[in-house]
Every structure is written in structure tokens, then in C-alpha cells.
Amino acid sequence: MPPKSRTYQPQKVRAALAAQTGALRAAVAGLGDEQLDLPTRLGDWRVRELLAHLAVQLDFLPVHLDDPLEGRPVLDLLGWVSAVATVAPALDAQTRERAAAGFGGDAASVAAAFGRAADALTGLLERSEAADPVRRLEGRLGSMLLSDLLVTRLVETVVHADDLADALGLAAFPHDRQAVAAVTRLLADAFADRVPGGAVELRIPPYAVVQAVPGPKHTRGTPPNVVEADPLTWIRLATGRADWATAVADAGVSASGERSDLGEYLPILG
After folding, report:
1. HSE-CB for 249 with a 13 A CA cutoff
2. Which of 36, 70, 68 is nearest to 50 (CA)?
3. Is 38 left (phi over 0), alpha (psi -120 to 50) or beta?
4. Which residues contact 128 (CB under 8 A, 6 or more apart)?
5. Domain of 241?
6. What CATH number is given to the structural domain containing 73?
7. pTM of the model
8. Which of 177, 176, 2, 14 has the alpha carbon at shortest distance from 76?
9. What does the pLDDT look like over 110-127, one tens digit per residue?
């Protein structure tokens, strides 16, 4: 089972988000015109649309920080993971609108547009409001603590930085380590919440271990069903970027025990 109430240290989250955003900004600044129209693994989105979507995610908080609250239902991080796929059509439309507005030009203009969104977020992270433990913002899915919304921005920046690396043919993106750690833990907890049980021990060293999947619960000794993956492989599986059978065949995942096939439960975040 996941921890009852895993906490994310706000100061570390803000630092990780600033670092991950900075790494993305540097990557975008180095793109050439021809790279902007490369395909991505996200349907018909090109790199242009991917960057426009990231810009939407980066400046959501600065744009809406002072919006009045309307009393929408409270939403926690696990609820966000479960619900975010339901707004995919709206996000796609918003992405295409943003792409047409500021991401249709040459590489320099795209980098400038992306830089403005990055600056808006990093500027917010330096403000006292970002450290307010009770401040809430409301979005399509509900009312979230600002501190939790910052964790969701880590998910967006880590997952989509990996999408960008894939589109560009890079072996890896220079992720911030703490950003990857937080995203790994959240998606592991979300898996255990979605598929409750104690039959399988899911290990994503060095960041997370959870019990999940219905069946006989392991109590001591070596667990009979163990799944282990590296953090980025787990993030790709949990978000539908990687196929379970392929990951096992390629040794990205080790799975032992008769209940260790997790393919039917993935992805958990679309």
C-alpha cells in the first residue's frame, strides 16, 4: 500500500521545479527551426505543440494565482492523477490555440515565447505566496493546495521533457534529480491507490517501494511477486509512453512471480 499521507517538502519541490524548468528553457533555446516540426509520440503533436503545451502548464499558476475561489471540490494529488485524463480534449484545444498564437514562428520566436512562460513560473517560485501552506487555486478538476499544484508541475515538466528528448532522438534529458524522485513517488503511490492490495512489491530504486495488486499479502522474507524498474522506465509505463511487454523484453523491467504482470493496470496517467 502507499504511504497514508506522503508529503513533499515544499522548499525542495520549488527548487526542483525551478531547476527542471531551467533545464527545459536551455533545451528549447538550443533548438533549430527544423527541429520544431519533428513529430512526437503524442499523436499528431509536433515539437511546436509539445512546447506550447508545456508553456500552458508552466504559466498556469502565475496566470491564475489570484483568481477568486468558487468553491470547487477539494482535489488531492492522487485525485489529480486519476482525473487529469478527463480534461485531455480541453488541454489539446488549449495547446493548439497557444501553438497558433506564439509557437508558429522560427526557433528564436518559439524560444522567446517559451522563455516568457518559464520566467513567469520561476518568478512565482521566488514569491512568498509560493510558500503559503494553505493557499489554494482552482482549475477544471477542482481546488488544490498551491503546494500540491507545484508537484503536478513537476509531473508535467519531467514527463514532457522526456517526450522532448524522445522527439529529438536524445538518449536522455538532463532532468533534475529531485524532480524525477517526486514524480516517481507520486506515480508509484497512485498505482498502489488504483490497484490496492499486497500481492506485489513494486520497487523503483532509489525512490519508491509500494505494495499493490489484489491477492495474498506478503508479510516477511522475500516477496513472491516483485517488480523492479528504473525511475524513467516506470514514469514512461505509468504515463503510457512505454509498453509493459516491451519494457520487460528489453530488460527495462524485471518481474518475478505469477502476479507480477502489471500490464493490465497500466497506464495510470494518460
Report:
1. 6
2. 36
3. beta
4. none
5. 195-265
6. 1.20.120.450
7. 0.95
8. 2
9. 999 999 999 999 999 999
